[in-house]
Automatic annotation (TrEMBL), chain B:
Molecular functions per Gene Ontology: phosphatidic acid transfer activity
Family listed: Belongs to the TRIAP1/MDM35 family.
Protein name as it appears in the record: TP53 regulated inhibitor of apoptosis 1
InterPro entries (UniProt xref): MDM35_apoptosis
Length: 203, 84
């Protein structure tokens, strides 16, 4: 079973700046969970697109109730692959990131204001842990939303630094509150589902 | 278990020996990316040598640590269709 989520964001800066920041966004104050970052593949295609593969390792601790159902190597650190295509002609950058969550980000120039950049975010979350799949999906989705907010904050921090501004509180703050509430609600819901599923298994 | 963030070297490459090579490559790439690539300059890539050195180091570390990067198609999971 797969769950679909989509969202959009606006960065009030040019597409070029966003792409440049994309390669320089680690470390930032919001990325404490990122332990390593490496480019493990990169080339320019015949159509002059830059394709890259980035390997990240993240400290990623699942809550105790979920951990016992996960394979051992997933319980404390995660390997994340991030593939990306930068097309300087079309002025789009598409990235694909996956671990147990699957997400795709597309950055393109906002059609209304060419100085702004639009982010379209989609997520597919799938899990094969029988009986708890729904709970894990809810948790995965909640964590994805929290991560997305951190990603935005990290991005805005790096962009502000690049432009010589002192990074201040951004409009991502309001998004954070909403995301936090959604994440908490989803987490509680997931816990409920998990304990229900557990009861079912042992009865 | 509390994870001691403050004692971790939180910024690193997967191969500790590759730090300097990575730094050199990143510097070269960031300059080329902003000044040439994004501006449509299709000239020669000035970073191919530093990239090669960095890659050979990091790929070795990946093998040693048995990180499962092989067999993953580029943009692979993109091809999955959401099932209901």
């Amino acid at each position: 079973m797969v769950k679909y989520f989509s969202g959009a964001d606006l960065l009030k800066t040019t597409w070029d700046q966003v792409c440049i920041a994309f390669w320089q966004r680690y470390p930032n104050p919001y990325s404490n969970h990122v332990l390593t970052e490496d480019i493990i593949f990169r080339e320019v295609t015949p159509t002059n697109c830059l394709i890259s593969r980035r390997l990240l390792t993240k400290f990623s601790r699942a809550p105790a109730w979920m951990e016992r159902y996960l394979p051992k190597h997933m319980s404390s650190s995660a390997y994340i692959i991030e593939d990306s295509i930068v097309d300087p002609q079309k002025r789009t950058m598409t990235t694909m990131t996956w671990n147990i969550t699957h997400a795709r980000l597309m950055y393109r120039t906002n059609p209304d204001n060419s100085n702004w950049t639009e982010l379209k975010r989609e997520a597919w979350i799938s899990s094969r842990v029988f009986g708890l799949s729904r709970a894990i999906q809810e948790f995965g989705l909640a964590r994805f939303k929290t991560r997305v907010t951190k990603t935005m904050k990290g991005f805005e921090y790096v962009l502000a630094k690049m432009q010589g501004e002192t990074p201040t509180k951004t409009l991502a703050e309001t998004a954070t509150e909403r995301a936090r509430e959604t994440a908490l609600a989803a987490k509680e819901k997931a816990k409920d589902l998990a304990s229900q599923a557990q009861k079912k298994q042992y009865v | 278990m509390f994870y001691p963030y403050n004692t971790l070297q939180i910024w690193d490459t997967v191969g500790e020996a590759c730090t300097e090579l990575k730094r050199e490559y990143d510097q070269c790439f960031n300059r080329w990316f902003a000044e040439k690539f994004l501006k449509g300059d299709r000239g020669e890539d000035p970073c191919s040598e530093t990239f090669r050195k960095y890659q050979s180091c990091v790929q070795k570390a990946i093998k040693e640590k048995d990180i499962p990067v092989d067999g993953v198609e580029f943009m692979g999971p993109n091809k999955d269709k959401p099932e209901s």
